[in-house]
């Protein structure tokens, strides 16, 4: 199992809309994300900064499946107007943060 995090940014004034859209996240997006092997996925917000965290057993497979997923493609298009997304061109996925330290149970 590997752990991963990303940072993205909301456009000013869209904080409530971002929350609303995630309160109503499409079931097919959740299904595709689970099918891609993503688990324990969380998103945190501090002002306009979003921090995502997830776990997977095979990062390359997970990214490939998310990039190929129809629901995730539509979700990305739906969210694009309210977010600033910086994508790693080598993965077509948000830049992932390096894990520096982890405290086990």
Automatic annotation (TrEMBL):
<protein>
    <submittedName>
        <fullName>L-rhamnose mutarotase</fullName>
        <ecNumber>5.1.3.-</ecNumber>
    </submittedName>
</protein>
<keyword id="KW-0413">Isomerase</keyword>
<dbReference type="GO" id="GO:0016857">
    <property type="term" value="F:racemase and epimerase activity, acting on carbohydrates and derivatives"/>
</dbReference>
<dbReference type="GO" id="GO:0019301">
    <property type="term" value="P:rhamnose catabolic process"/>
</dbReference>
<dbReference type="Pfam" id="PF05336">
    <property type="entry name" value="rhaM"/>
</dbReference>
<dbReference type="InterPro" id="IPR011008">
    <property type="entry name" value="Dimeric_a/b-barrel"/>
</dbReference>
<dbReference type="InterPro" id="IPR008000">
    <property type="entry name" value="Rham/fucose_mutarotase"/>
</dbReference>
């Amino acid at each position: 199992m590997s752990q991963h995090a990303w940072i993205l940014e909301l456009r000013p004034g869209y904080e409530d809309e971002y929350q609303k859209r995630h309160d109503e996240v499409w079931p097919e997006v959740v299904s595709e994300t689970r099918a891609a092997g993503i688990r324990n996925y969380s998103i945190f917000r501090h002002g306009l900064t979003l921090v995502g965290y997830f776990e997977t057993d095979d990062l390359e497979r997970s990214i490939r499946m998310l990039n190929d997923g129809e629901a995730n493609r539509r979700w990305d298009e739906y969210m694009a107007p309210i977010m600033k997304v910086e994508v790693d061109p080598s993965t077509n996925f948000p830049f992932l943060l390096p894990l520096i330290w982890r405290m086990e149970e």
